[in-house]
Amino acid sequence: MDDGPLKPRRYYFVRLAGYEAQRRDLQAAGCIKIFAEQVSSVAEREQLNAAVDYLREGDVLIATKLDRLARSMRHLLQIVDEVKEKGASLRILGMSLDTDTATGTMMLQVLGAVAEHERSLMLERQREGIAKAKAEGKYKGRARTAMAKASEVEALLAKGVKWPGSSGSAAAASTGR
């Protein structure tokens, strides 16, 4: 039995910084599935890849902001190409851009290039500030992260201490043990 053409589905890709605001925007846009992640800018983007893999022809992948989606112009173009290969489109809510149109694709590319340029300028200013602070003896470096406590966490796990509300297996998996 043929019910006619499949109705396009809307998916939403979200990075967790500012999650509640993004979730509100996604609900207003009528999204039906969320692919959420919180990873560093250099880590593998498993949920983004899963979102693109999940797309079918006519679907729309939605992100609230360009900087929540792509790391660079090259990365943006790669995402756009992968989405188009699936017969789907990409929509950026904060810019009212949709790759379903030629103008939307062109504007996305222009704004992506501007965003990458802005990021490069910010990093340049940051490097200059760090160099100046080092020269003045004021630069202390980045504060130690949670990895500094890895051996302490492993010792607690070995003693059987569990995360609140967990079986402990997720905690053990996160340390790779």
Quick tags:
disordered C terminus, alpha/beta, 5-stranded mixed sheet, 177 residues, 5 strands, flat, Rossmann fold, 7 helices, single chain
Offer a concise description of the structure:
This protein has 177 residues and is of the alpha/beta class. It has seven helices and five strands, in the order E-H-E-H-E-H-H-E-E-H-H-H. The protein folds into two domains: 10-114, Resolvase, N-terminal catalytic domain (Rossmann fold, 3-Layer(aba) Sandwich), CATH 3.40.50; 146-172, no CATH class.
Helix and strand layout, with pairings?
Layout: E1 10-15, H1 19-28, E2 33-37, H2 46-54, E3 60-63, H3 66-69, H4 73-85, E4 89-92, E5 97-98, H5 102-135, H6 150-158, H7 169-174
Parallel strand pairs: 1-2, 1-3, 3-4
Antiparallel strand pairs: 4-5
Question: What's the CATH topology name of the largest domain?
Answer: Rossmann fold
Radius of gyration using CA atoms only: 21 Å
At the first level of CATH, the class of the largest domain is Alpha Beta
Provide the spatial order of strands within the biggest beta sheet.
Answer: 2-1-3-4-5
Q: Helix amount, in percent?
A: 40-55%
Total DSSP helices: 7
Question: How large a portion of the residues is in β-strands, by DSSP E?
Answer: 5-15%
Number of strands: 5
Distance between the termini: 51 Å
Mean pLDDT metric? 79
**What order do the SSEs take from the amino end to the carboxyl end, as H and E?**
EHEHEHHEEHHH
The CATH homologous superfamily of the largest domain corresponds to Resolvase, N-terminal catalytic domain
Morphology call: flat
The major beta sheet can be summarized as: 5 strands, mixed
Q: Which stretches are low in confidence, meaning pLDDT under 50 for 5 or more residues running?
A: 168-177
Q: What is the domain total for the residues?
A: 2
Q: What is the structural class?
A: alpha/beta
CATH architecture of the largest domain: 3-Layer(aba) Sandwich
